[in-house]
Design a protein that fits this description.
There is one protein chain. With about 800 residues, this protein is an alpha/beta fold. Helix content is about 35%, strand content about 20%. The strands form six sheets. Strands 8-7-16-15-17-18-19-20-21 form a nine-stranded mixed β-sheet. Helix 16 links the parallel strand 15 and strand 16. The longest helix has 21 residues. It is elongated, with a radius of gyration of 33 Å. The termini are far apart.
Length: about 800
């Protein structure tokens, strides 16, 4: 009509075919063929692939916003030239870029999203002139092969889209029933719309021009991409602002455009080589991920810093054996260090490596901290072994760590069977301790790379693995606490077992800053009243514990009216498991509004901690972040190919910095897999020779640089802070001749039926068999596993 008006001729009216013919055509279509097509098309796809949300509003109603991005003329020409050269449609290229973006954000190589199709089946003659509602939304499934050429992949995608033409009229509700997605779940929650109504590319609007045209889109999908009919190309993202932030959407549009251009200039490359993150995004993420204003230089080891308080009569340690001043602590550590040096010099240690490890096998009531300092003073490194461990476990740790000396006592009964391992009985040194003779002060020649200790964690191979920590690792991890937290601990309550790396934080941070370390009695956390009383009597200012335990403390204090006895606390650090309880933070603010509460994160391989977050004022409905990397440490979120991921996208948490361990003891292959050198490019700058530890933890980074912990990539589980590998538990079960196969699953309890199931389990003889099977694991871990089994947690 417009053409006729411009040319000055009369438009002839042609009566279109009635819409009812289209309805009849749809009703005569072969339903069985459609069902077969969609079942085959969606076979094996059972999980929604979507874009992770940046925020979560209390409002259920959508608050739609939109943002546009326009390709430059030169870039648009590049896209059109590539499409013509390879006989591809612009529609196909846009689908490819959108699919790659969704793959990156969802972390999957097989995705399904919605797309609008014209619905005008060419088999029905005259359909192009019909008037009616034909447009339909259909699922599009795209997979990313590892090695396929870009052009071949695009051609296959175009054929994929063309296949849909025969089924464009199929109802989405019927298609959903053909999928393996659960009935209550969505097949997709993002939509792609390629607008293709006529657009005058010549720019000749002298004779007829449309003005003040407004394009309004409404959708029930929270994320809709539109390619608008314009030259140069233009894209619009319509989104629910209750879920997605404006900056996140801007990033997504820029990444989509970057992806589209990358596809068009990479004809000879593989699909897997396409990187979604533009260099200026990488530069921004790298800047947020590292605070390099704090520069760590190894000055002196922690025991030398503690030595500076050696003339002080202030209390250093309060434990079940009474109080110990800094003067007494230093004297005892020097005396034990002298004994260790003597044994190392005179013992038969020809087959030992140069690290001269010392095993510390003492109970919690015994002088474990004094022995730790003594080992460090002697120039050796220590391995703490709980004497309560089963005999087989102790023997394995001794055999694997191969200590030259073992510090123990007559009470524990731990005596090395290895003839080359010397044993020092701490309880037999009382005469020397009571002597007026001052022991020599030891200053071993220790460099930053010298080992300080080895700490064993659960191993994915079925056996524990020893994490090596150097003196520089330990010094950095300790020093940076004073830089991050508002005040050093005047009185620190140590609740962690000595075999846990969280104990390292309390011990060395307190003693290197002249504070008082309060060592709790064994299993004190099982009596909440006694625990609260201890905090009150000792006037504890700092503590570190599991979120679950702290929540129990707060609930007990609230219900018994004893919250006032916790008022001495100025800093509470939560670590060891995910902090995801809104109740905990609410109770904390009600009972201790002036007390700072932090969420701390870090694997043993990064020397206790690598990030922290002040949760004191956290109000968001989203999970509590683990925060930003501590100064001089860098944390990146990487994909499976070790490439940088966009903000909010889940990936593996990888850590670099002065706290990262040298590796695993006697496990070079495992160390090579977990500790890798990476190069990250941004704005023509290359971050080379950065050694990262691949944690196996999932996380995402927000626009403020805060990281949210999202679980594990593998099957590792945590039980009240115990880091456990299912493979190790399964191996322990399989050691029992009554068990042929074992599979460990971590399952959340549901409802009140758990108690009934627990009664059924306790009436059988399965408990005894599990106890026998778990005999090779530490009692505390075996006990926790059984408790979880009785309550359907495992």
């Amino acid at each position: 009509v417009f053409g006729c008006m411009i040319e000055g001729r009369r438009a002839e009216s042609v009566k279109p075919r009635p819409f009812s013919d289209f309805v009849d055509f749809c009703q005569t279509a072969d339903a069985n063929q459609s069902e077969y097509y969609w079942k085959s098309y969606l076979k094996g796809y059972a999980q929604l692939a979507g874009f992770p949300v940046a925020k979560r509003s209390a409002s259920r109603a959508m608050a739609l916003s939109e943002q546009d991005i326009e390709c430059g003329v030169e870039d648009s020409q590049t896209i059109l030239k590539f499409a013509r050269q390879h006989r591809l449609s612009i529609n196909t290229l846009v689908h490819a870029a959108w699919a790659l973006l969704l793959m990156t954000y969802s972390g999957r190589d097989d995705v399904v999203y919605g797309a609008t199709f014209s619905g005008r089946n060419p088999q029905l003659r005259g359909i192009e002139k019909m008037v009616g509602v034909f447009i339909n939304t259909l699922p599009v499934r795209v997979s990313r092969p590892n090695s396929q050429n870009i052009v071949h992949w695009l051609q296959a995608l175009q054929a994929n889209l063309n296949q849909h033409k025969e089924y464009e009229h199929d109802a989405l509700t019927e298609i959903k029933r053909c999928s393996e997605i659960e009935a209550q779940a969505k097949l997709f929650d993002c939509l792609l719309v390629v607008e293709n109504y006529p657009y005058d590319q010549s720019g000749n609007r002298e004779q007829l021009e449309l003005q003040n045209v407004t394009h309004v889109e409404q959708s029930n999908y929270p994320c809709v991409l539109l390619m608008l009919p314009a030259s140069p190309l233009r894209f619009r993202l319509v989104y629910d602002s209750n879920l997605y932030s404006d900056l996140q959407v801007r990033d997504m549009l820029e990444q989509l455009f970057h992806c589209l251009i990358s596809v068009c200039v990479s004809a000879d490359k593989t699909v897997h080589s396409i990187d979604v993150v533009p260099v200026h995004h990488s530069a921004r993420i790298l800047e947020m991920s590292l605070d390099d204003t704090y520069r760590f230089d190894f000055d002196r080891p922690v025991h030398d810093v503690i030595q500076s308080y050696s003339q002080s009569d202030a209390i250093a340690i309060s434990g079940s054996g009474g109080d110990l001043t800094y003067r007494q602590l230093n004297r005892m550590a020097n005396l034990i260090a002298g004994e260790i040096i003597h044994k190392l010099q005179t013992g038969a240690i020809n087959d030992r490596d140069s690290s001269n490890r010392v095993a510390i096998c003492l109970s919690r009531e015994q002088p474990v901290v004094q022995c730790m300092l003594a080992v460090l003073k002697s120039g050796a490194s220590y391995v703490v072994i709980d004497p309560g461990y089963p005999k087989d476990r102790i023997n394995y740790l001794l055999e694997h760590s191969r200590p030259a000396v073992c510090l123990t006592s007559g009470e524990t009964g731990i005596i090395g069977n290895d003839k080359n391992m010397n044993t020092i009985f701490i309880d037999q040194l009382s005469d020397k301790l009571n002597s007026n003779r001052e022991p020599a002060v030891h200053h071993a020649d220790i460099g930053p790379d010298s080992l300080a200790y080895v700490l064993y964690t659960s191993g994915s191979t079925g056996m524990p693995k020893g994490v090596k920590i150097s003196h520089a690792n330990l010094a950095y991890s300790t020093q940076v606490r004073s830089h991050c937290y508002a005040g050093d601990p005047s009185v620190f309550l140590l609740l962690s077992p000595f075999v846990f790396d969280s104990s390292v934080a309390g011990i060395y941070w307190t003693l290197t800053t002249g504070g008082r370390l309060v060592i709790s009695e064994p299993r004190l956390e099982q009596d909440l009243q006694k625990l609260i009383d201890k905090i009150y009597r000792q006037q504890v200012t700092h503590t570190l514990c599991l979120p679950g335990l702290y929540e129990l403390i707060l609930e007990f204090a609230s219900s018994t009216g004893t919250g006032s006895r916790l008022q001495s606390l100025t800093t509470v650090i939560l670590a060891g498991e995910a902090l995801n309880s809104g109740t905990l933070l609410q109770l904390h603010r009600e009972l201790l509004p002036e007390t700072k509460i932090y969420n701390e994160y870090g694997p043993t391989e990064a020397t206790v901690w690598s990030s922290y977050y002040d949760a004191s004022d956290h109000q968001s409905q989203l999970p509590v972040p683990i925060g930003k990397a501590i100064p001089a440490t860098q944390i990146l979120i990487l994909d499976r190919s070790e490439r940088l991921l966009p903000l909010y996208v889940p990936g593996e948490i990888c850590i670099a910095g002065p706290g990262v361990s040298p590796g695993y003891l006697n496990a070079d292959n495992l160390s090579a897999r977990q500790f890798v050198d990476l190069e990250i490019n941004a704005d023509h700058s290359t971050y080379t020779s950065r050694r990262f530890y691949k944690t196996g933890d999932l996380g995402s980074m927000d626009t403020n640089g805060n990281i949210t912990f999202l679980g594990r990539i593998d099957d590792q589980i945590k039980i009240r802070g115990h880091r456990l590998e299912p493979a190790e538990i399964e191996q322990a079960l399989l050691n029992n001749p009554l068990i042929e196969q074992a599979v460990i699953l971590s399952v959340e309890s549901a409802g009140d039926n758990a108690a009934d199931d627990a009664n059924l389990l306790s009436e059988s003889d399965l408990d005894e068999r599990i106890y026998n099977a778990l005999s090779g694991m530490p009692p505390v871990e075996a006990k926790e596993l059984l408790e979880r089994a009785r309550h359907r947690h495992l």
